Amino acid sequence: MEHGTAGALGRGAAGRIECRSVRKTYRDAADGTEIVALDGLTLDIEAREFLTLLGPSGCGKSTLLNILAGFERPDSGKVLLNGVPIQRPGPDRGVVFQDYALFPWLNIQQNVEYGLREKGMNKAESSAIARRFLAMVGLSGFERRFPHELSGGMRQRVALVRVLAIDPEILLMDEPFAAVDAQTRIILQEELQRLWMQTLKTVVFVTHSVDEAIYLADRVTVMTARPGLVKAIVPIDLPRPRDSTSDAFNRYRRDIAQLIEVESRKVFAAAAA
Amino acid sequence: MSGQDAVPEPVVARPGKWRLALAHVHSKIGWERMGRRALVPLLLLAIWQYASTAGFFDPSFVPSPISVVTSWWQWIFGPRSELAWYSGTWLNYVYLSGWRVLVGFAIASAIGVTVGVLIGWFELARDMLDPIVQGLRPIPMTAWLPFATFIFGIREGAAVFLIAMGSFFPIAVSCTIGAEQTPKNLVRAALMLGTPPRKLLVRIVLPAALPYVFNGLRVGLGIAWVLVIVSEMLAVKGGIGYAMWTAYQFVRIDLIIAAMFTMGLLGLVSDRLLLLLSRRLLRWNTGLRAR
User: Fold this and answer.
1) Between chains, do A146 and B193 touch, taking CB under 8 Å as contact?
2) Counting beta carbons within 10 angstroms of the beta carbon of residue A226, is it exposed (0 to 12), middle (13 to 18) or buried (19 or more)?
3) Contact B195 A97 (CB under 8 A)
4) Cβ of A151 and B207 within 8 Å?
5) CA distance A94 to chain B (A)
6) Cβ neighbours of B287 in A, within 8 Å
7) How confident is the model over B35-54, as a mean pLDDT?
């Protein structure tokens, strides 16, 4: 396996996702009514694309991500990865969780080694790779710390390199930076963008933040209020790294915020009714 | 690296190792603290000594602390003799009681952790094992005693059975809760990183349940000490409980009290040992607690 050199981190495989008429419903735990999270969503995600999913709370963004990860199955419709239906979770799709989901009983080094060891890699090799990836996000010297000893931003870096280390085709990120402070968030966005440019994986990134979506994405997918559908797909045609104070960035911000606001108002109206 | 600004600082400011150790020792032997801790026990001892010697009670009924210590001393270090049944038997009795607790508790731990975690994790195990566990659990442990002696006779088996049975339940129940509370995202993370579903139990569920496992073990160990006394009073010969019951029949309240303190000591030491082990294995968890 090739690791370490910039631009050669990825395996260079496809990583193309197709969602066809994906429907997913839940039973509300409180009153037993049926909630339609996704109502026939259709979306194509290109290989090596950075796609952000943006939408009001409860629009089914996370549901879609869980289906792509294989954690949940759609009630109907098809979800294909490189033409093959997604059945279950697997190391070809790395997931970064909002709450990090690091194993608290393993130290940082062991957390990053975990997936490599599951692949059957020996101790020495996985240890070397884990060290290299931790160094890439500035965590050298923290290898023996436990997750609870680190700040939120540091934990999320560990969670990110834990999946990058196993070299997945797809990176699925569920509001990964929502729990960290604003300054750290900007740094993490920059780091993620840098790592993505090196590895060129397909990334599906769920966020609430319009700025974050525009800063990171090749295409911003705006979703409707529940039931979740694709309202608009906005390609972001700006050179990287992006300047969030530029006029062009501001135009995107205004347009997308407007789309979101309409949907957010629907949520409020529904709640009031 | 995107730049030096991204180099994170350690979140916890850590004083040097020796300084921590020194602070620890200081807090342990600080005279003021020691005095505060010893005050109430010493006061109670003084009241006891005064009450037993002032002539309010018959001294054979309420022995003084000094006579308890004297009898205890003879129990431990006295020569074996036909004249005093207890003299010099203490160490052997501690060994007998301790061994029974150890064997019973070991059996209970092995079965309790296995059954508990299985019930908490697999629906099949829950359906098949939980009814029997929940069905037997309400039977008070002392109610098992006649049954146990009937099956095993006045032998070691009766005591070990009772102890294993009694400490099994809190261990199993605690492990069940621990396994049930495995965070969903940790399971998902493991699956996503390539862990096969059949290995989740060992890789994720068991370590995640470890704080609950130790909690159950500590409760179980406490019950094991209760039951060793009960079974030694009624079902087996030898041991601290046996000594206690014999002392009762000889109206030797000084020895009864010495036996009580012995039990307290044994319970305390074994609990501390278990706590030490859990602190070692749960180092990752300590920072998550408020205290």
Assistant:
1) no
2) buried
3) no
4) no
5) 6
6) 146, 148-149
7) 89
B97 alpha-carbon distance from chain centroid: 14
Instruction: Look up residue A180 and give its two tokens.
Output: 């960290």
Chain A CA closest to residue B199: A118
Q: Are A139 and B214 in contact, with CB atoms under 8 Å apart?
A: no
The closest of A256, A117, A267 to B193, measured between CA atoms, is A117
- Interfacial A residues in 218-257 facing B (CB < 8 Å): none
CB–CB contact B192 A138 (8 Å)? no
| Residue bearing tokens 């530029």 | A246
**pLDDT of B15 higher than 60:** no
Distance CA A92, CA A111 (A): 18
Distance of CA B262 to the CA centre of its chain: 14
Residue with tokens 């009762």: B248
Give the H/E segment covering residue A81: strand A76-81
- The pLDDT value recorded for residue A14 is 78
pLDDT at B216: 97
Mean pLDDT of B153-173: 94
Q: Return the number of other C-beta atoms located less than 10 Å from residue B266's C-beta.
A: 17
Assess: ipTM above 0.85: yes
Test B204 with A103 for CB contact under 8 angstroms: yes
* Token output for A271: 């709640």
3-state class (DSSP) for residue A43: strand
Which amino acid is present at B29?
I
List all residues 6 or more positions away from B81 whose beta carbon is below 8 Å from its beta carbon: B87, B88
**pLDDT band, very low/low/confident/very high, at B55 (cuts 50, 70, 90):** confident
* C-alpha span between A89 and B103 (Å, rounded): 43
Burial environment of residue A260 by CB neighbours within 10 A (0 to 12, 13 to 18, 19 or more): buried
